[in-house]
Amino acid sequence: MSTTDFAKALQRMLAITDTGLTYTRDPFDRERYEDLRQILWSVLQDQTELDQEELTAILKPTGSYATPLMDVRAWIVQDQKICLVRGQGEDTWALPGGFGEVGYSPKENIRKEVQEETGFSAEVGSLLAVFDTNRFQLQNKQYAKFVFDCQLLDGRFQENQEVAELGFFDISALPPLSEKRITKEQMDILWQVYKGEREQYID
User: Fold this and answer.
1) Which fold has domain 69-202?
2) pTM here?
3) Mind telling me which SUPFAM superfamilies this protein's record contains (predicted)?
């Protein structure tokens, strides 16, 4: 089994224990799920480089049925250059966006994220891609990453609580990327979809 397959197996087992602990009414089943969670804790400690805080976050029960989460990102191009933001205290860059919030549609979420991170209102256009993070940036939780073609409208960028810097970059001269948020391979796919060189991408 490859390292990636092993990590996916652990992720799947965590999802099963979360769902089991949420819905079981049998005290014996609850004990078994809690035992499984302890075994997973030991495996993660032995086989990964995660610290105690990261392990605690990963193993915290969701309290609901375990499903993939939603991440929304804005693809903004001006003069053939792509808008990226650099978070506070970070050296890497990503497309504007973040986790989807309850009570907002995907398009409403991306408008909100663009406004908060860039200071601009945005017109949200077509959906360019839906990426599965298990394929591109495997991590403790699985996300469906929705990337929308957007256009900046009124506003002005100011450094804020989340974002330290905003910039526009050529696809061939990208800065270091925050690969948990966006990878170079994903950027290349998005550029091809945007330029009409391939169809909408959906994992």
Assistant:
1) Nucleoside Triphosphate Pyrophosphohydrolase (3.90.79)
2) 0.74
3) Nudix
